[in-house]
Description:
single chain
Amino acid sequence: MSQVTEYSEKVIDHFMNPRNMGEIENASGVGTVGNAKCGDIMRMYLDVDDNGIITDCKFKTFGCGAAVATSSMATEMVIGKTIQEAMKVTNKAVAEALDGLPKEKLHCSLLAEEAIHAALWDYAKSHNIEIEGLEEPVNDIDETEKFYEMEK
Ligand code: FES
């Protein structure tokens, strides 16, 4: 019988057993992004300590399985990192950490990258700091002209 999906075991694992799902009360930064085309929404919560280390990260995602899996993986990838290291958690890095995503699901990993950026932006604003390389987030990533860096 032919496979209907090409999801990796890691994607399925993070979808079935999402890590760090939920919310952080009084988080240092919160960011919400969506994609109007598919209707999926992702919210990321970050706690950042005085040394600029991300001590906790949680997510709430109303979206497809790949969006849940990328959110879950992204939280694991930023916890314990500095802000600058977290900036390197791109859609490509998240997709690669999940052993790849089907081509039509790559935009889900962009949602994870953008949600982290939106939470960092919120943190930077409330702490009056600038984060190198961070641009003001957009609510609807479908409006961005970003293209996906990873082809599979
Ligand atoms: Fe849009 Fe997955 S289908 S985030």
